[in-house]
Design a protein that fits this description.
- Keywords: ATP-binding, Cobalamin biosynthesis, Glutamine amidotransferase, Ligase, Magnesium, Nucleotide-binding.
- The protein is of the alpha/beta class.
- The protein is built from 14 helices and 24 strands.
- The chain has helices at about 15-30, 45-55, 65-80, 105-110, 125-135, 155-165, 200-210, 215-220, 230-235, 260-265, 300-305, 305-315, 325-330, 430-435; strands spanning about 1-10, 35-40, 60, 85, 115-120, 145-150, 170-175, 225, 245-250, 255, 270-275, 285-290, 290, 320-325, 330-335, 340-345, 350-355, 360-370, 370-380, 385, 395-400, 410-415, 415-420, 420-425.
- The strands form five sheets. Strands 1, 2, 3, 4, 5, 6, 7 and 8 form an eight-stranded mixed beta sheet that branches. The chain has a six-stranded mixed beta sheet with strand order 11-9-12-14-23-22.
- Strand 15 and strand 16 form a beta hairpin.
């Protein structure tokens, strides 16, 4: 038995992240080990979770992976925790196709209750029909209670409590309408503001939750049996290969799914390097350049000539290299920054990545290649490739979540493969793929 819950909301911007971070820090302050999870492909919320809880978060995505994989991940990473907290995505029922892939579907799959965060700004007793709808819309979703956000006064809260009483939804407390409890805007909708102190924010949010939310009651109503991981599967995962993998990891490149990294460690030894600070690429059988924020560090990246030359030589000599999004931009000839200036990069691909005329491109992606259809990923970027000189790999087809073919490119030069899509291979048999690679 252990407390387990999913933090959901009626819509994005309701305060899920603020509540989750405060809850995680409050639990940590109580000397409880809280294992955070994130519904969906988001990289930034998982970084927030780590800062607040002191425990690395895990993405649970029902498009990128199977239901059995999700259950196994939840069991694997939650087994040694005192509490398991999953932050939802968007509105509770918002998925890539109706309810599919939604926070509600994840809560149903894992059998965990939902604590609903409801933005009560400009709303009083009208919360009643909203709560009634969420309580009765789907009998498989257990709305265990509600926490109201942006509550202006005790009088305001009294109306909201009456709405809970009349609809039979337990009221767990509220978060006052305070400017200091707003997470700052993120660079391109994703990044962490460098001037924002997440540690102070988490502490303040935790103080608010301890004062205005009945945390003891929340833990009690979410206490339930926990399914242990499958030992036979764990023994299979203990098998290790003998290759060496170099993974870029620094302030510019750090968008890495936790389970992706775990799978790479099955192939062999993983070493980390920094395109920002290290002089050259370490010796490796495979190099992985994940996404991140190269556009924020263009001066430093272009000044590190020895690293640029080292990666270029590795690719020219036929080294195995995979680059995603920001990593793919880094392999371009130049990046045009937000300041309009051109910055020289590695030059594996004769193309220009630009931050000018930014337009958001996002969505799930499915790759088909020689009959293989289980390679999936997610695309999220504002940059674009201007007049690409490298042809996209012709025998790969890429589709969105609705099965419609997209214009997403996947480039190849010798043994270097790069594209905008962040791939998820946490469920793939990488040992078999590596042993049978072309």
């Amino acid at each position: 038995m252990k407390p387990q819950l999913l933090v959901g909301a009626a819509s994005s911007g309701s305060g899920k992240t603020t509540f989750t971070l405060g809850l995680l820090r409050a639990l940590k302050n109580r000397s409880l080990k809280a294992q955070p999870f994130k519904c969906g492909p988001d990289y930034i919320d998982t970084k927030y979770h780590l800062l607040a809880a002191g425990e690395e978060s895990v993405n649970l995505d029902l498009f990128l992976s199977s239901e059995s994989h999700i259950r196994n991940l939840y069991a694997k990473y939650g087994t040694n925790a005192d509490v398991c907290i999953t932050e939802g995505v968007m509105g509770l029922y918002d998925g890539y196709d109706g309810m599919k892939g939604s926070s509600a579907k994840l809560a149903e799959l894992l059998g965990i209750p939902v604590v609903l965060i409801l933005n009560a700004k400009s709303m009083a007793y009208s919360a009643a029909p909203v709560l009634f709808g969420y309580k009765h819309f789907n009998k498989n979703i257990n709305i265990a209670g509600v926490v109201f956000n942006r509550v202006s006064s005790e009088t305001h809260y009294a109306y909201l409590q009456q709405a809970c009483k009349d609809t039979g939804v337990e009221c767990l407390g509220y978060i006052p309408n305070k400017k200091e409890l707003e997470v700052p805007s993120r660079h391109l909708g994703l990044s962490i503001d460098n001037s924002f102190c997440m540690d102070d924010f988490a502490n303040r949010a935790a103080e608010i939750i301890e004062e205005f939310v009945d945390l003891d009651r929340l833990l009690k109503i979410s206490n339930m049996p926990f399914c242990l991981p499958d030992k036979s599967e764990q023994n299979e995962l203990d098998i290790r290969g003998d290759i060496k993998i170099a993974v870029a990891y620094d302030n510019a490149f750090n968008f890495i799914y936790r389970e992706n990294l775990a799978q790479l460690k099955r192939l062999g030894e993983v070493v980390f390097f920094s395109p920002l600070d290290d002089a050259k690429l370490p010796s490796a059988d495979l190099v992985y350049l994940p996404g991140g924020y190269p556009e924020l560090y263009l001066d430093k990246l272009t000044e590190n000539k020895t690293m640029l030359h080292s990666i270029k030589a590795y690719a020219e000599n036929g080294g195995n290299l995979l680059a995603e999004c920001g990593g793919m931009m880094y392999l371009s000839k130049v990046i045009v920054g937000m300041d309009g200036n051109l910055y020289s990069m590695v030059g594996v691909f004769d193309q220009e990545a630009t931050m000018q005329d930014m337009k958001l491109t996002l969505g799930y992606r499915t790759f088909t290649y020689n009959g293989i259809e289980n390679i999936r990923g997610h695309e999220f970027h504002y940059s674009r490739i201007k007049d690409p000189q490298t042809d996209s790999i012709s025998d790969i087809s890429i589709y969105n979540a609705k099965g419609v073919r997209t214009k997403t490119n996947l480039f190849r030069y010798k043994n270097t493969i790069a594209g905008y899509t962040h791939l998820y291979w946490g469920e793939l048999d990488l040992m078999n793929l590596w042993n049978h690679k072309c």
